[in-house]
Amino acid sequence: MRKISVLTFVSLDGVMQGPGAPEEDTSGGFRHGGWTVGYFDDFVGQEMARQMGHKFDLLLGRRTYDIFASYWPHSNDPGAAPINNATKYVATNRPLTKDWNTVRLEGAVAEAIRKLKAQSGPELQVHGSGTLIQTLLKNDLVDELWLKIFPVTIGSGRRLFADGTAYAGFELVESSASPSGVILAKYRRAGKVKSGSFI
Fold first, then answer.
1. Number of domains forming the structure of the chain
2. Exposed (0-12), middle (13-18) or buried (19+): which is 135, by Cβ within 10 Å?
3. Quick check: helix, strand or coil at residue 25?
4. Rounded CA separation 153/79 (Å)
């Protein structure tokens, strides 16, 4: 059984769209891209290197795949090798023309991911891919959330959690904070919500 880990940058008000650059993702008229840059310090970079410092494959939506494919195969960044070596499983209805260890998920996305998850193999990491993450959360397919929570509010844009997210409990298994105020938190899926009443 393969574990699905969602690695994402998120604002205090839950926005995950366009974290890395003003023009990264302007869909829906989003005008606030690049909101992580001023807070991305060495501590956050080292934590990301640790999270990606083992064998993994990637599970990506089409927009994120296209962004990655235009950058990582040509990058001299030390973090390029794990991404370039990973198999990329892409949720898309359109053909994939790039030969970059890429597999297109066939059929209904949730069912294709269930089958992929049931196979043996390395962890499946999800980077970016907001629409795909919504599908994963709706179908209770996320095993761990590795969140980098930035000390900003955005006010608009695609959010990490939307209507349709499964009612599910998680446990906090790791947490730390960077000098710039980024909270790094790893949550693991942990059964049902522990509901009750204070009345």
1. 1
2. middle
3. coil
4. 28
Judge whether 199 lies within some domain: no
Residue 80 structural domain: 55-138
> Is residue 190 situated within a structural domain?
no
Residue 160, in any domain of the structure: no
CATH classification at residue 82: 3.40.430.10
Quick one: 125 exposed, middle or buried, by C-beta within 10 A (0-12, 13-18, 19+)? Answer: buried
State the Cα–Cα distance between residues 146 and 187, nearest whole angstrom: 6
* Pairing outcome for strands 102-104 and 123-127: unpaired
Per-residue pLDDT tens for 41-62? 999 999 999 999 999 999 999 9
pLDDT digits 0-9 by tens, 86-123: 999 999 988 887 689 999 998 899 999 999 999 999 99
Contact status, residue 152 vs residue 146, Cβ threshold 8 Å: no
Q: Does the predicted TM-score (pTM) go above 0.90?
A: yes
In a domain, residue 46? The reply is no
Neighbours of 106 (CB within 10 A): 10
Largest CA distance in the chain: 59
How confident is the prediction for the chain on average, in pLDDT?
Answer: 94
